[in-house]
Amino acid sequence: MVDKNSDGWSGALFSRSGLVLLGFLGVAGYFLWAEHQAHVIGALPWLLILLCPLMHLFMHHGRGGHGGHGKGDRRGDDERDRTP
């Protein structure tokens, strides 16, 4: 049976214990960022490089792989087929 007086997550989040939890998470997040900021920012270029193969895999998902590259772009072929 569902209690009609409870507001679900919003009620639990803004209760006294929920506010204490939010405060604790905020302080913990601040100290994590302050102490590890140099490590995170130093790793960003490497993370971008590592992200490239993942993006490549996900971008080709459902499109049949590399078979579609260059199809429909026949502008250069017409110019090469003409003889002066």
Give the SSE map.
Blueprint: H1 9-13, H2 16-59, H3 75-81
Annotation keywords:
single chain, 84 residues, mainly alpha
Average pLDDT taken over every residue: 76
> Gap between N and C termini, in Å?
86 Å
Query: From the helix content, strand content and strand pairing, which structural class follows?
Result: mainly alpha
Q: State the helical fraction.
A: 55-70%
Oligomer: single chain
Number of helices: 3
Shape: flat
Largest sheet: none
SSE pattern? HHH
Radius of gyration, rounded?
27 Å
Into which percentage range does the β-strand content fall? under 5%
Low-pLDDT segments: none
* Strands, count: 0
Give a structural overview.
The protein has a domain of 54 residues. It is built from three helices and no strands. The termini are far apart.
Explain briefly what this protein structure is.
The protein is an all-alpha fold and 84 residues long. The protein is 67% helix and 0% strand.
